[in-house]
Amino acid sequence: MKPGIHPEYRDVVFHDTAADTYFVIGSTLQTKNTIEYQGKTYAYMPIDVSSASHPFYTGKQRQAQNDGRVSKFNKRYNFKGLE
């Protein structure tokens, strides 16, 4: 590798603000923000979505779709449920 042309590779704390979860990941991200996390100082980057809050990984979207299908079926056939 050529010296002096590569960005610094370091550990960065990514904070998923939707799920309030922290991830420490190696990155070349350039940021001036820092955070004290587990006794060490890291570069800090807040993010909106990660695997902790994205519906594909949490399965919440699938549940919502299933609820919609059941409701649509009940509405179509006037099904009132078991009484």
From TrEMBL:
Annotated InterPro entries: Ribosomal_bL28/bL31-like_sf (IPR034704), Ribosomal_bL31 (IPR002150), Ribosomal_bL31_B (IPR027493), Ribosomal_bL31_sf (IPR042105)
Organism domain of life: Bacteria
Swiss-Prot/TrEMBL keywords: Ribonucleoprotein, Ribosomal protein
A Gene Ontology cellular-component term: ribosome
Keyword Ribosomal protein recorded: yes
Subunit structure as annotated in this protein's UniProt entry: Part of the 50S ribosomal subunit.
This protein's name: Large ribosomal subunit protein bL31B
Lineage: Bacteria, Pseudomonadati, Pseudomonadota, Gammaproteobacteria, Alteromonadales
Gene: rpmE2
